[in-house]
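Q: What structure does this chain adopt?
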Amino acid sequence: MRNAPIRATAAMGVTACRLVDVTDARAQLIDHISAEAVFHGDFTLTSGKKATYYVDLRKVSLDHRVAPLIGQVMIDLIADVPDVFAVGGLTMGADPVAAAILHQGAARGLTYDAFVVRKEPKDHGRGKQVEGPDLQGKRVIVLEDTSTTGGSPLKAAEALEKVGAEVVAVAVVVDRATGAREIIEAAGYQYLAAIGLEDLGLV
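A:
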């Protein structure tokens, strides 16, 4: 299995790896999101619907304190999906999440690569829409920071399948419970969410 964790020991001639307390990482991540990324007021969502709060995950996903926590929590979330080659999604919400998984995975001895899906194919150069490693025949997970309508992950999945990737799941950091799960599962993809509204005290 490509991403079976490596546990190094002194007998192997390398420094022993400290196992991450994922439960603690998730609790810390929830605290950071609640304190720094949840805004109250009158907001219009991507769907056009109105909301009294907004979760702006980029306030924390690009923060040096929080990005490692996102990587740790998301690695634990996708750990049971076998033989995943790479992770990523539609730019730009998915980009920091993919980078966090890539770096935290490497620190654990895992081999997740990352990719970026442009909103539209480039109009110059090689005209690519999916940037990163060759994904032909590879199992990939589509990421999203905060799900609302499910439109962004599905657009990314469509582009990935055009280049021959096998999309095996959609994984989001925060699920807003606004129908994305149902839409994505209806499209035939497994849906995984690390944090729900109840975790953030929003229900």
